[in-house]
Automatic annotation (TrEMBL):
Residues 158-232 form the MgtC-like C-terminal domain. Virulence factor required for growth in low Mg(2+) medium and for intramacrophage survival. May be involved in regulating membrane potential by activating Na(+)/K(+)-ATPase. This is Protein MgtC. One of its GO terms (cellular component) is plasma membrane.
């Protein structure tokens, strides 16, 4: 019978408003993600926003503002597990960080809507959308700008994956190929890569190296007998 006593039309209308706002605002964020065919699209962002709104609204009703504040803290930490699920690592490149951050923003929008801060939820939505749209041309322009090697250290690493029995031959071929290009590794490591293969990791000295030259280098390495795969990856530190 407690469930019937808890029915309050005014409170239900407030909950309906909070969930509706979370649905609409989460949908706006999700539409932009869905349009760009990201991992977390329309439905995911809407569900995150609604879920956060429902948790905060329930806590707000049961324990007042103090309860809502405590639940918000759990939402902030809990959404990290969901965000981690959309982050992928492929051959040294990390993908999905922006999608994970967008989910975090959707949770914030939902939590704000659940706390009956409708205007604040709308402002948060506008800023999330602005970060994903208005900043995109700036990011693309910076990405196309040549790296200023005076202010950043560039480290290029060449990877060679070879059959376990071809370790010495692959290592000798790599050192010979690097020597012909006058590239000197500052660190050279060999470790197991599965049950039947090894990976040779040659970290080159910090210098400005032509990407096309490294592309040609790994292309030649990939053609050597016993070499299963060859590629290179840059990394920078300020």
């Amino acid at each position: 019978m407690t469930a019937f006593h808890n029915i309050n039309l005014a409170s239900l209308l407030d909950t309906l408003l909070s969930l509706s706002v979370a649905f609409v605002l989460g949908g706006l964020i999700g539409l932009e993600r869905q349009y760009r065919q990201r991992t977390a699209g329309l439905r995911t962002n809407v569900l995150v926003a609604i879920g956060a709104a429902a948790f905060v609204d329930t806590a707000n009703r049961l324990n007042g503002h103090d309860g809502a504040v405590h639940v918000m803290a759990y939402v902030v930490s809990g959404i990290g597990f969901l965000g981690a699920g959309v982050i992928m690592r492929e051959e040294g490149n990390v993908r999905g960080l922006n999608t994970a951050a967008t989910l975090w923003g959707s949770a914030a929008v939902g939590a704000t809507a659940g706390a009956d801060l409708i205007v604040e939820a709308t402002l948060a939505t506008l800023f999330v959308l602005a970060a994903n749209t208005l900043l995109r041309p700036i990011v693309n322009a910076i990405a196309r700008t040549p790296l200023d090697v005076a202010s950043a250290e560039v480290t290029n690493t060449v990877y060679v994956i070879a059959a376990h029995g071809q370790q010495k031959a692959a290592l000798a071929q790599l050192e010979e190929a690097l020597g012909r290009e006058n590239l000197h590794p500052r660190d050279l490591r060999v470790h197991a890569f599965g049950p039947e293969e090894i990976e040779i990791e040659a970290t080159l000295a910090a210098t400005s190296v032509d990407g096309e030259a490294l592309d040609a280098l790994v292309g030649r390495l990939a053609g050597f007998p016993g070499v299963r795969q060859a590629f290179w990856s840059p990394s920078t530190s300020d």
